[in-house]
DNA sequence: CCTGATAGACAGGTAACTTGAGTATAGCGT
DNA sequence: ACGCTATACTCAAGTTACCTGTCTATCAGG
């Protein structure tokens, strides 16, 4: 099952990159999408983002450096804590986020169409979400993962 | 959806590693499992394996080197073609394959149990398989992916 | 104000790939 | 039988997306 899920992910990833390339974005990867999804409107700290995406602060710092260099985000000093900076989307970043959503929605719709127009697809999605939530609450009883838009 | 699938994969991967570690195998990764699954009983060429797993010959050669160094496979010259070698499982490899199957089956059963004892899980699996097959046959009309045991 | 926690920076390492280029062998058309 | 192209594999180097370990600056509690 896990390998199946991985292959589906890879297939979708490939489609996504292709679509992004067609739109002229060659510097966005899946991880940027995950990052975009984790950002708050009013600025988010690197350490918070790292925790949300389940990676180390260092890996997140690298991802943020990369994303900043590409012009999608800026990091401004946190007025409430001089150690910290908060991540904000630039206009370019905002546009990219919207494009990513649009493309992923399109891909998702295509997949749903391939799978008999919807029903099976949405139950597939529900199943994955439920499985994840259950797995997450196996050990620790944290807040359940919000149903993923993508 | 893709991100969901990826998270499910990662979760399962983590469970699998943990179980393998408990059994004393610290040198097996998910890719070895995929490799094990792709092997024929009577020996398989690297190029064939690379194609089956959708990677380059070079990446497969590296994976095979690694797996051979760990003692799970041997490569013997192909008597029918002096350019080629064929990959065979060692006894240790055979044992590892069987353990992997057993552990993945156990994990799968646990997941199925978490998801209301079966029905939802198997429909999830069917959905993923169907989606993959449909995606694969979008462009080229090749043989459909066999339903994945894991 | 000292102490320990936290935010982040800097350096180096690893896994699992990739592309590019090269060698040995196979097998086909002429 | 000979040359040409395709195939099986190898070697070298680069990339992505992480990791651990160590460091400094800052914050917050007793």
Question: What keywords describe this structure?
Answer:
homodimer; 150 residues; 3-stranded antiparallel sheet; DNA-binding
Give an overview in words:
The structure is a homodimer of 150-residue chains. Chain A has 150 residues and is mostly helical. In chain A, a hairpin with a 7-residue loop joins β2 and β3 (85-89). Chain A has helices at 2-22, 30-38, 46-52, 57-69, 91-114, 119-136; strands at residues 44-45, 73-77, 85-89. In chain A, 61% of the residues lie in helices and 8% in strands. The first copy, chain A, has a three-stranded antiparallel sheet with strand order 1-3-2. Chain A has six helices and three strands. Chain A binds a DNA duplex (30 and 30 nucleotides) through α4.
Helix content of chain A: 55-70%
Written as H for each helix and E for each strand, in order along the chain, the element string of chain A is HHEHHEEHH
* Rg of chain A (C-alpha, Å): 17 Å
Low-confidence stretches of chain A: 140-150
Tell me the number of strands of chain A.
3
Strand share of the residues of chain A?
5-15%
Shape of chain A: globular
Distance between the termini of chain A: 20 Å
Quaternary organization? homodimer
| Number of helical elements of chain A | 6
Major beta sheet summary of chain A:
3 strands, antiparallel
Helix-strand makeup class of chain A: mainly alpha
Mean pLDDT over the residues of chain A: 85
